[in-house]
Amino acid sequence: xxxxxxxxxxxxxxxxxxxxxxxxxxxxxxxxxxxxxxxxxxxxxxxxxxxxxxxxxxxxxxxxxxxxxxxxxxxxxxxxxxxxxxxxxxxxxxxxxxxxxxxxxxxxxxxxxxxxxxxxxxxxxxxxxxxxxxxxxxxxxxxxxxxxxxxxxxxxxxxxxxxxxxxxxxxxxxxxxxxxxxxxxxxxxxxxxxxxxxxxxxxxxxxxxxxxxxxxxxxxxxxxxxxxxxxxxxxxxxxxxxxxxxxxxxxxxxxxxxxxxxxxxxxxxxxxxxxxxxxxxxxxxxxxxxxxxxxxxxxxxxxxxxxxxxxxxxxxxxxxxxxxxxxxxxxxxxxxxxxxxxxxxxxxxxxxxxxxxxxxxxxxxxxxxxxxxxxxxxxxxxxxxxxxxxxxxxxxxxxxxxxxxxxxxxxxxxxxxxxxxxxxxxxxxxxxxxxxxxxxxxxxxxxxxxxxxxxxxxxxxxxxxxxxxxxxxxxxxxxxxxxxxxxxxxxxxxxxxxxxxxxxxxxxxxxxxxxxxxxxxxxxxxx
Amino acid sequence: xxxxxxxxxxxxxxxxxxxxxxxxxxxxxxxxxxxxxxxxxxxxxxxxxxxxxxxxxxxxxxxxxxxx
Lengths: 527, 68
Description:
The structure holds two protein chains of two kinds. Helix content of chain A is 20%, strand content 22%. By secondary structure, chain A is of the alpha/beta class. In chain A, the strands form four sheets. In chain A, strands 1, 2, 3, 8, 9, 10, 11 and 19 form an eight-stranded mixed beta sheet that branches. Chain B is an alpha+beta fold. In chain B, strands 1-2 form a two-stranded antiparallel ribbon. The radius of gyration of chain B is 26 Å and the shape is rod-shaped. Chain A binds chain B through residues 267, 272-274, 276-277, 283-284, 287, 330-335, 337-339, 342-344, 396-397, 400-401, 404-413, 415, 418, and chain B through 27, 30-31, 34-35, 37-47, 49, 51-58, 61-62, 65-67.
């Protein structure tokens, strides 16, 4: 059932099996899986069924590091969370994203891709995707590049990210949530504190308030934070202040290694007719599906590792049968002498979407400002490392080299990237994908949660969501503004759940490990 | 005669084959035609990249125009 804390609540003294804080994609996915096992679950959502500024303003914070979006803009604080403005693009993390690298400090997950793979079908079902396929395909004529495709979108051509209809969790699952006898969703329930047994360290209850300031309390055996990467870190920082850093912060890791996906537009490109010889199905796709062909190139993981950069892609976007504008042609004699329809047949714009490395100095902190519930607001000290920009540069250079090697075309590059200007002078842009801050690791010295997403040092506290990402992989963002989200949907571990509730033997999808990213994207139907 | 009539019957399989052939003929012909035409851009096995007014070009691009 769904009830509203604004209107008063029934007796909540009977303990639940699990309390989930947050009803975004992570929280709802988790809740749906848990109730299938027979568990009694309560899900506390800070907002209502619809967007309100009264709720949203509690996301406000300060950017303390590199320029970034206002912190209340990339995410949504109501039922369904940030799926409310997701436009339906998904991509799996890759096997190489989970592997440790000697040259990248803090890389390497405590779990492998193969451990998550069995859950892909289940996750695809939750988000309404037809499934995930092979991400990478070798490019003809290149031993260092792959094309990137997703079955989820289309696995037919070069790349056609034909986005599926985005599933708004808040509206799509509302009826299912409301009808479940085992699930209680409480709206307008702003969690302000967790009750910790000082002797055992076990969390016994959660205190929450409605917007009138009335406080309530629920009890549960297990608690899961599913509020998004920023809020999970913020809440854990609050919790640790009063409990001697016992909850994942033994190594001062809560909030650290916050990551984004860099989104770096490069400019224009053009393609010759050789495109046809590089895509067997391109013409059929255009004819049958009226889709816009797109080419996404990514250096092979082994190549990137060998040359010391991270995961990333160059996306040749908006491929259209149109000439380059005079502005796009610039003053290059070579370019200005090209004739549309003779020398090239398509043009468009391109960008690099790339990974940010784990960085201890890129972190979520608390400021002295307070929200309407008296809790300290977020300070985001977003920082990059030189390898992050080197990755953008290398990805663009490899793709440009490939275009020249094959006679396929030419592309532009951001001059600042070519000239390797310092990070502080680089025109940075991001994808509104929030990861890290409660990173997964084997020990509390390098992370906040363990391989089961249980908070280090805690008996019964977990984190679900992209905050648990150890590394970020790359993504294919389409929009630098607005928001998107990197959600996780989870996997996890039978042992952990069995420990708390033997009756839920089949439970696999508890809070968890990262698994795929949901991406905001626009639809492309220009051709 | 029945046997003569049978030989002139359009079976479902024949119909499907013919329909598919008609539908596929145009794009197949187009692809074949385009594939026979080489790229007007030269293939450069080991390009030396340079940035010219925002464009990543091979150093040879800056010396030789593409079209005479």
